[in-house]
Amino acid sequence: MVLANTSFNGCFRIESDSVMGQGSFSIVYEASCLKDETKYAVKCLKKNNMNQDEILSLMDEVSILQELTPLCHPSIIPLHNFFEESSMFYLVMEAMVGGELFDRIAVKQFYSEKEARDVCKIILNSVDFLHSRKVAHRDLKPDNFLLVSAQNDALVKLGDFGFSKRCNDNANSGLGDLKTQLGTPAYIAPEILDKAPFYGSQCDMWSVGVIMYVLLGGYEPFYEAHKEEMYRKIMKGDFEFHSDCWGDVSMDAKILISSLLEVDPSKRLSARDALRSKWICTDDKLLAENDLTTTNFCKLKKYNAKRKVRAVVHSLIAVNKLNIMRQSKKLAEETS
């Protein structure tokens, strides 16, 4: 990674019609390096759209990625360059042209318990690495696991470190030292919803448990139409393995998920321990024989389609809110 001493436009060219994604405060474009034409994804943020807390959060994200990138972990999207200019921030990242992991799974013709297990192992390895570096991601969900290329299903990396934070899990009598309530509703840990004074990186392991449940069952464990009811179920750890969906899934997988969807974070399995669990270590041949194609895979495809629609709706809402904020700010400036 090279930290920038020159301007972004002096090093990179944003390609026309190359929007790769859009958030509340940022747009991600495809960009080419002027030196060798290597393709990158560049996250562009306008300073005047961000308040001081949001800028500080961005700097946390950049600082964490600057620490992680030189370690070259195969499952973490690296930060190649960062530019702070008079009106803009630019984060230059590896271009993940293979799309989202769940989208790739959804177009498969065959889906076995082994394939689900292999994905879970990749997820656990990335989280174990983060936690070994004393970093909590705090927004683990299917959207943030991306494929390097369209040709290789095994090259999966974790991105979007906007909510990530360095943490000390030993602080405050083992509770941790994180305080902020944030995350994606369906994947958020109960200790965050419970407004506990402190929490730690084990919040990520709850999210991993939800992802595993979706990968094997095809639906979210705590889903409710009303968010308040979903939060109530999360805080109680109120979920079950419905027999019509989970009858063919191995008991070891269900035991692992239950160990992750443990309301008490001190009793919740760590990433390191989950990687040593019986299901993760089960022989490939045995899991490959458990075909989920005609049962839960159909539910997973439907879930993925709904997830994509929700993501688009949430993005539009966020952009509309930002536009309203901009208009209000402009009006206030004009009338002052």
UniProtKB/TrEMBL annotation:
Instruction: Name all Protein kinase domain ranges.
Output: 14-280
Q: Which domain of life is it from?
A: Eukaryota
What are the entry keywords? ATP-binding, Nucleotide-binding
Coiled coil region boundaries:
none
InterPro entries according to UniProt: Kinase-like_dom_sf, Prot_kinase_dom, Ser/Thr_kinase_AS
Indicate yes or no for the key word ATP-binding.
Answer: yes
Q: Which Gene3D superfamilies does the annotation name? A: Transferase(Phosphotransferase) domain 1
Q: Name one GO molecular function term.
A: ATP binding
Q: Where is the signal peptide?
A: none
Annotated PANTHER family: SERINE/THREONINE-PROTEIN KINASE
Entry protein name: Protein kinase domain-containing protein
Lineage of producing organism:
Eukaryota, Sar, Stramenopiles, Ochrophyta, Bacillariophyta
